[in-house]
Design brief:
single chain; about 210 residues; mainly alpha; two-stranded antiparallel sheet; elongated
Length: about 210
């Protein structure tokens, strides 16, 4: 039977790994990202062989589905959604009261609400912690996959995809600013799949 102490150790290790990956994507530089991408490629090569190199957009779609499902499950079981909703509702009510007190120049009410603000900070801090923890867990799978996709695309710059209205475009071409078409495709598919999964898992937004 797993003890509470052992669970805490696993949680700390997982959080440390996730945070390390989030920092590593910036600190490791291009060589570090390529090294991680190469390692993940050993697991992803069979999928590439299955769908074909010319259908890399399908691989990105599958990758988006994996990360969307994983992220939704992590959020479902690590976030207190009731706390998130109640904190948001309290914040909205507080902001409305505070604005009305300012407009009416009710100094007594303003002072009273300012005292309440400090009490609400505790709930907001807890909400921020609950949002950060899933990010660390999610990065353990999503960041290595993203690094692999980045590495693979750089090695196959001729890969293309047919977008509605735009026609055929190279995945390495940019949509706007530094955002390439493959990143745009990944995020819109991930967003769409995530909405379906969250609805199925009854995960409410805040």
């Amino acid at each position: 039977m797993v003890t509470a102490h052992f669970k805490k150790l696993i949680e700390r290790f997982t959080l440390a790994l996730g945070i390390s990956l989030m920092l590593g994507i910036v600190l490791l530089g291009t060589e570090g990202r390529e090294a991680i991408g190469t390692m993940v490629g050993r697991l992803m090569d069979p999928l590439i062989s299955l769908v074909g190199e010319s259908n890399f957009h399908i691989v990105l779609f599958i990758m988006a589905g994996i990360t969307a499902l994983y992220a939704s499950l992590i959020q479902k079981y690590t976030i207190d959604w009731e706390l998130m909703r109640s904190t948001q509702e309290k914040m909205k009510a507080f902001q409305k009261e505070f604005r009305e007190a300012q407009l009416s120049q009710n100094n007594y009410m303003i002072k009273k609400l300012e005292e309440e603000r400090s009490k609400m900070m505790g709930d907001q801090m807890e909400m921020s912690k609950q949002q950060f923890k899933p990010m660390a867990y999610i990065s353990i799978i999503s960041l290595p996959l993203f690094m692999w996709a980045y590495h693979y695309i750089n090695l196959h710059e001729g890969a293309s995809l047919v977008f509605p209205f735009w026609g055929e475009v190279l995945l390495v071409d940019t949509v706007i600013g530094p955002i390439q078409h493959w990143i745009f495709w990944y995020f819109i598919t991930s967003l769409a799949i995530s909405q379906v999964v969250r609805k199925a898992l009854n995960i409410g937004g805040v």
